User: Fold these one by one.
Assistant:
Number 1:
Amino acid sequence: MQIQFVGHAGLFIETKFGSILTDPWFNPAYFASWFPFPSNEELDLERIGHPTYLYVSHIHHDHFDPEFLRAHVAKDAQVILPDFPLPTLENAYRELGFTRFIRTKHGEMVDLDGLKIAVLASIAPTDGPLGDSGLIVDDGEVRIYDQNDSRPVDIDLIKKLGPYDAHFVQFSGAIWYPMVYQYPEKLMQTFGMKKRANELARALRYTEQVDAAYVVPSAGPPCFLDDDLYQFNDFDRTATNTFPDQTVFLEYMAEHGHDNGRLMIPGSAMTLARDGCTVTHPLPDEQVAAIFTDKRGYLAAYKQRAQPKIDAMKAALPHGQVDILAELKAWFEPLMAIGDITCVGINGRILLQLGQQDILLDFQNREVRASQGEEWEFRFKVAPELIEWLIVTHQVDWINTLFLSCRFAAERKGPYNEYVYNFFKCLSPERLEYAEGYYAEQSTDQQLFEVAGYQVQRRCPHLKADLTRFGQVDGNILTCTMHGWQFELDSGKCLTSADRKLYTHRIGSGEPAPPFIKPAAVKCKHCWYIPD
């Protein structure tokens, strides 16, 4: 098997049974905030533009690049579709002219005339844009797992579909936290350091569980080339920066006793066989190293080349063409009316500060109105032209546009609340109904396991990660390394979010094990609602 690294999460896989192009990303994403790092500007697009199969893990724009797919990928490619609950990804392909689809079932092997593949789909509201996935490819000689930035929780299934000769895994940051929040500098550094450590630890845990012969760090980090965001780049391997590069993770692996990591940059070629792996780079080794050791110089030159694209994006934004309050009221209030669980989950007000206009999203009364200085729980400060663009183009997933851009400032008065961000990615009735249904179907998993003298609920209350695999205990604190959520063992209290609780019971305490108690009822507009 030959694998060319396309950049970020992109691969061009060549086998005797045909080729697969995965997650090709070339154009700036999220209001020209993200650019591929290292640059893939010099890649031969003609060579990768006629694959037998095309696979994109999910519709985030650092994976699904519509401009590139429209202009450079042959429309006779057979598209491998993950088993997502909504047809969003398929519809996006069809808009670009693709018509040949291979529909997969989660975790089931498919034989494509000798080439075997399986797609592992994650479908929680918090998984990507209502769906993320990973790809397994087996050409009869070697097998790879391209996890990219999905967060699978069923490790047993992954192992069952193995063993693997190569594992491509995300290790770096990909969201706006904590940089956009208005924290004191010391607190910002603390949160940044903790998040960086969690990212690296999670990726390492995945590599240890998958246990592939070789590991390639991929799917990040991006680089930020606009002046407003330039400081987010990890120029100096700073312990508080959430965007460590590939070399940092390879060294982290080595520090933990793993020497099977391999670096790939755009244009690097891997030859993978049963008896080993070789990687060749498109540049001399010293030039490859300089990308990471002289990142300031590398990004300064890259920034100069990218500036026209950044300027063009900003020039194309609407200014003062939209009645933002009226449009958001007409758009959001019908969604609030059907989003019972979401509104109860938010249970407060979100203030949008848009230049000279303050707009309140009141989820308790389910209305959008001009702010009169009322109390708020979450505040987002955004340039109004960005909101105008979201309205004009009717973006139903603001995570995949505004939030990942990091072009906003945020403040909150309480803990993280996943319902807030899930609302902003579910801005259509179809998407919101799916999220509502998903939450309604959830129930507590009563499987228990023993750790540190306690019986503990096996599945994390956040996204049901298996704590027997992803749980780490330090004193009285259990950390789920899947997303870094923390719980007190003696009380079950969640230290990350106020709306979660872990079932725990001290073994040998002499006290009867308590039954699982549902959270207290929360009064909403229509009912008394007890979340599962």
Note: The chain has three domains: 2-310, 324-431, 445-515.
Number 2:
Amino acid sequence: MKIENLLKEKNGVKFLQQRSLQKIVAVALFFVVGFYFISFYVDFSFKKPVSRYEFLNPARNFWHTEDLIINFQPLRDFLNQYEKNPNISIYFEFLNTGSNISVHQDAQFYPASLLKVPVAIAVAKKIERNDWRWDNKLVIMAGDKDDKFGNMYKEQTGSTWTIEELVRRSLVDSDNTAHFILVRNLELAEIEDVYDHMGLKNFLLTRGDLSAKRYSVILRTLYNASYLSEGNSQKILQLLSLSEFKEYVQSGLPDNVLFVHKIGVSKEQNVFLDSGIVYAPNRPYVLTVIVKTADESEAKDIMKTVSAQIYKYVSEYQKEL
């Protein structure tokens, strides 16, 4: 009797296990089949986020309301004093809202070393296409050497340098020799593509002059990573943040504020330029200042005054309640 009871008990357990397994399979099939039919009627794509405010800029969710400044009239009134001088071009753009101010927005000047940034961008794009690598090496030719900016002209002709080092020297030290090595090894179409993307089509066919407003597009392109990948946009901006040239726009900023920028100097044409992104806490903005004068100290004073006033307004602004 005990053996019979034991067999019955084992058979009962086995039966219950089979029933449980059948239930699990049935439930699973129910959900799979149900999801299959529901998918005909419900769009499960995640291409567009659902929002109660579909007509509003979704980027507003990333900023505090107090950092979305649109009233720049007092700052505009201050900058209007430079309208009297046709040899000054200023462009300011508040990146959180796109609000901007231009002084002589159509006045064009030779951008000098600012042109090194589009070339660096063209290099990064060539690397993204897998035509180059950052650790590839290029040769210094005698025709590349230029002693106006940087010390690379002192290096031996025929020596080789990595592309990464050449870009670093071009942007951080504003080294002309490094820049010319990169230009020589790029295709003209590769540089043209950078300018075309930024709305400067056929720029290389012109005299090469730019206004402060037009040049600022290059910085916005890097900030938004709209041409290069996020990684390479970050790389170029990080190199620009290492610039040792602090006597222009940066002289009007607090020491602890990050300024990513490129300067340009053409003493032959008496042009001094500085263009960059000021990373004011939660309130970043683009500022480009170009001054045409034979007196560099005058250019420095103008840039310092403009920079300090803009930073003061942006950093201290509070909305009226």
Note: Confidence is low (pLDDT under 50) at residues 1-13, 35-47.
